[in-house]
Amino acid sequence: MTADAANIALFGTLAADWWDPEGSSRLLHRINPIRLAYIRDAAVAHFDRDPKSRRALTGLRALDIGCGAGLVAEPLARMGADVTGLDAGPEVIAAARAHAAAQGLPIRYECAQISDFEPQETARFDFISCLEVMEHVTDIPAFLSSISRLLAADGLLVFSTPNRTPISWAVLIAGAEKITRLIPEHGHDWKQFVTPDELTQKLAAAGLRTETLSGLSWSPTRGFHISNDLRINYIGTAVHA
C-alpha cells in the first residue's frame, strides 16, 4: 500500500465541493491553468504534435494518478486523449464519474491503489500525470516502480509536488493550511515532501530519467507561474531511461 489512509479519508470528506472554485480545493483551481499549460506544452513537444491544435493529444492513452474529482483528467480528455483517472478514494471517484457524465466526457475512473491497478487493455499509457500526489505517498520507491510499469517505452510522465524546505513549510503548512485555509488543514505532512534531488534519484532507481524541472511559483504581480525557483513547489517531466 503506497497511499496514506488518513489522507484518503480526509479528501473523501471534501469530494462534494471539489469542483467549487471557492471550495476546499480552491488552491488547485487557481494553479490548474498553469499546470495544464505546462502539460500541454510538454506533451506537444514530446509527441511532436501541432501546438495550434485544440485536440493535440488525440490518440494518446493518458493516465491521471491521484485524479481526485477530475480537475486534470477532464481537460486531458478535451485535448483529445483517451483518459483513465486513478484514485484510491471512493468518494472522489464517485464525484469524478458524476461530473464527467454531466459534461459528456468518456473518462474511465478507477478506484484503486496504483500497486493494484491493472489497465483494462494490455497496452501501457503514452502519458501519465501525477500532480500534487507524491507528498501523500507513504512508499515512493514502490509508487514510482508502478508508474514505470504503466508508462509506455516512449511515454512521458509529468509530475508536480512540494519541495521540503523551510520556505515550503512556511508557505504551505503555516500559511496555506493554518492561516489562509487555502488547502485543507492536516492534509499534508511536511516530512513527506520530497526534494528535487531525492525525487530525481528515486525516479532513476525506478528506471526513469528526469528531463526537466521548473518551479511552480506565485508573485503579487504575476500570480501563479512557471519559474526557476524550486523552493516551494516544482513541476517536471521524466521518461524511461
Mean pLDDT: 90
* Class by alpha and beta content: alpha/beta
- How many strand segments? 8
The named CATH superfamily: Vaccinia Virus protein VP39
In short:
The chain contains 7 helices and 8 strands; from the N terminus they run ααβαβαββαβααβββ.
Q: What is the topological layout?
A:
Elements: H1 5-12, H2 26-46, E1 61-65, H3 73-78, E2 82-87, H4 90-103, E3 108-111, E4 125-131, H5 140-150, E5 151-162, H6 166-179, H7 196-205, E6 208-219, E7 223-227, E8 233-240
Parallel strand pairs: 1-2, 1-4, 2-3, 4-5
Antiparallel strand pairs: 5-8, 6-7, 6-8
Describe the structure in your own words.
The chain is an alpha/beta fold. It has a single domain, classed as Rossmann fold (3-Layer(aba) Sandwich), CATH 3.40.50. Helices cover 35% and strands 24% of the residues. The chain is built from seven helices and eight strands. An eight-stranded mixed sheet has the order 3-2-1-4-5-8-6-7. The radius of gyration is 17 Å and the shape is globular. The protein starts with a helix and ends with a strand.
Which characteristics define this entry?
alpha/beta; 7 helices; Rossmann fold; 8-stranded mixed β-sheet; globular; 241 residues
